[in-house]
Amino acid sequence: MKRLNGDAITIVQEIKKWRSSLANEKGVPEKLVTEIIQAVKRDGDVALRAFTKRFDQVDSPSFRVSEKEMEQALNRIDEKLLIALQKAKENIWCYHERQKRQSYIDAEQPGVIRGQLIRPLEVVGVYVPGGTASYPSSVLMNVIPAKIAGVKRIILVTPPHKEGVNPAVLAAATIAGVDEVYCVGGAQAIAALAYGTASIPKVDKIVGPGNEYVALAKRAVYGIVDIDMHAGPSEIIVVADETANPAFIAADLLSQAEHDTKSMAVCVTTSRDIANELEEQLISQIEHLPRKEIAKQALEQYGAIIVVPTVQAAIDVANELSPEHLELHVQDPIQYLHAVKHAGSIFLGPYTPEALGDYMAGPNHVLPTSGTARFSSPLSVDDFIKKSSFLSYSKDALQEVNEAICLIAETEGLHAHAQAITIRFQEEEEKEDGKALQTYPYYK
Amino acid sequence: MKRLNGDAITIVQEIKKWRSSLANEKGVPEKLVTEIIQAVKRDGDVALRAFTKRFDQVDSPSFRVSEKEMEQALNRIDEKLLIALQKAKENIWCYHERQKRQSYIDAEQPGVIRGQLIRPLEVVGVYVPGGTASYPSSVLMNVIPAKIAGVKRIILVTPPHKEGVNPAVLAAATIAGVDEVYCVGGAQAIAALAYGTASIPKVDKIVGPGNEYVALAKRAVYGIVDIDMHAGPSEIIVVADETANPAFIAADLLSQAEHDTKSMAVCVTTSRDIANELEEQLISQIEHLPRKEIAKQALEQYGAIIVVPTVQAAIDVANELSPEHLELHVQDPIQYLHAVKHAGSIFLGPYTPEALGDYMAGPNHVLPTSGTARFSSPLSVDDFIKKSSFLSYSKDALQEVNEAICLIAETEGLHAHAQAITIRFQEEEEKEDGKALQTYPYYK
């Protein structure tokens, strides 16, 4: 854990350098990912089966998990866990339901009807990583907003294992209302969702976290389908005044640090005492963690304690870094909400740890990382809808704007645009004159 | 103009092939674009000035257009054009204002406050192409939604010309409320907006159309800043029954075709007579267009007339292709709104030509192309805001979900997450027992 001193601007620059060094790390053979995608696009299931055998050492006649297996998963997990996941679903549902939007129509002008239709995406694919851990919470967070949006068909893909899909993941899928689960993973799963194969349906959008192969494949198929934002390493900034409890802060920084050796955990405090106690707390608390080595590496590389003169100065540092998670351990924290300009999710007060938001409280845990909270947002119902505008003009209403449109079209040198308006009125005049429909001099 | 016969599926496949052949065309030296971006990032204004001299043959001491020049532009254009642009602004503003969203708060459970903040982006850059034509309508369409969102600083960049910026573009910028205009173009302008230089401010998002250099540069800086969607060649599908007026349809197809030799213009009709008359109309109307050669090439390559048995079958073809613009020249068109699943903008009836929407009616003309209307939306106020979630739990409220969170955290193997909750209660128990704060056994 670094103790950063000096002025806030220098410190912010220093931390931004860590980030960009992370962004420049490249470990994945792009060529291999391209080859995988091309093969699946061309050969469908045959390629999918071959890559699954090669990368996952699994050779199964079918990718699909049966509906029976999905239902049975509910009985295969601890009943208390089942209730916990159901409670989480309820909270996530209730929070996201307020994001649902209505189509609108504006019929205020005579002869003019215009509006915006809100429609759910038709088919969505959710990627759930396999590997050592299983993430039922990720299933809930990615699937529930899509359900609320009204997506009719939600496909979950996850890498196969010889022992079958993790029952907690399957149970979460069933609870969230996933329609179909397929055991395919990696770049080949992304390619299958983007182009469709005989057994995997083509989707409109792919969401969910994954390793670098998955991330690269998603970027490659973007445009063919939509994708969610790229998730960088997870981040937290804790802002603390002298009333904060350093033991709580240490626990929260560690919950961030245990994710990944690249996780960023920073505390900005107005109190030297808090800074000192926090360091002690980190040292004592980290010892008992099963993922101690990961957390240690993360804190050594991307952990920092910064002392600044005021809470506002601390929030200025946070705004500059625009973190994924921001905790405010200060007196009357809601009074500072206006001052927070850029953060994915804001946690107010000593009893609102990030872990509460990760699992249970309701707001989404898929958040903008690496400073992108300046312009990106948490995953929401908006990510699973699309909009279409519609327009209807009467003849009279069109005639009223005829000249104005032609003037702009002429300015832009697009005469056929002007003609598309004038022809609708010239035709009649010419007919009345008994002339044939022959030429349509455009607007001069 | 091709006459496509046969079953709808084969026809749709055929048209999709045209599209993907377009998507695979690559003409831009990616390496050069990367070099330009790196140089501007490193050397700022010095590089910017050098590239402007090299690519635009302009060597100016300052990039900035003075505020005086911006105001004067209003007097330099025809008064009728000024009124037309102001009328367009009014309509665009009125249509988009309904897209504005409110932050929400949910304080329904004791001890729990949660919600979502809606905030405007702080700084937005709008690219306006130079070249032979000027596009004041594009300025209005890109800037007004940002203004409504509440963006405080809107920067417009456009390639320099020896004669200065086109007065219609400058007037539109002033009318729309652009804050600053800079004469820089190409990949170097995008790099300047993404990284900032001494004279050009760094922005949070870049929108607006551009040539292939601009498109490639935007994609390269995505992540550093946000960008709008990539606009492919423009497209229209007209669905027509036997009541349609072929002269109107021909004019609308031509207004699409004159944009670009790669524009797609397709009519799907239930009437062989309409198909025949449409062909005649196209032949006669095209003759009088200044951009005849462009329109001819577009129609020859990417134009088609398709005859199908029913209006529903025609709409099915449109849905499969998910066009940017869809016109319904059928009886009682609003009855078919439910059947249209994927289209950027829908134009209903004979007096609602696409050109009306391009300039005047209010809905945005920045629309999803190349079939991306399946998952993308017209440019809107949503594109200039970001969301943050916030959360506050009381101690009691947290204690109630303590066990549930720990169960999920343990399932996911993230014990520091569980500890972040339990420490908030164990501490007290231990204090009460008179024990020192030493170890925090995580949830078992």
Molecular structure report:
Chains A, B: GO terms for molecular function: histidinol dehydrogenase activity; NAD binding; zinc ion binding. 2 copies of one chain form a homodimer. Chain A folds into 3 domains: 2-22 and 233-367, Rossmann fold; 44-229 and 382-386, Nitrogenase molybdenum iron protein domain (Rossmann fold, 3-Layer(aba) Sandwich); 394-444, no CATH class. Chain A has 444 residues and is an alpha/beta fold. Chain A has helices at residues 8-24, 30-43, 45-56, 67-76, 79-97, 136-149, 167-176, 186-195, 212-221, 246-257, 272-286, 292-302, 311-321, 354-359, 395-411, 415-432; strands at residues 2-4, 64-65, 104-106, 112-120, 123-127, 153-157, 180-182, 205-207, 226-227, 235-240, 264-269, 303-307, 325-329, 345-348, 385-393. Chain A is globular. In chain A, the strands form 3 sheets. The first copy, chain A, has a 6-stranded parallel sheet, sandwiched between helices. Chain A has a 6-stranded mixed sheet with strand order 2-7-6-5-8-9, sandwiched between helices. Chain A has a 3-stranded antiparallel sheet with strand order 3-4-15. At the A-B interface, helix 5, strand 4, helix 10, helix 11 and strand 14 of A face helix 5, strand 4, helix 10, helix 11 and strand 14 of B.
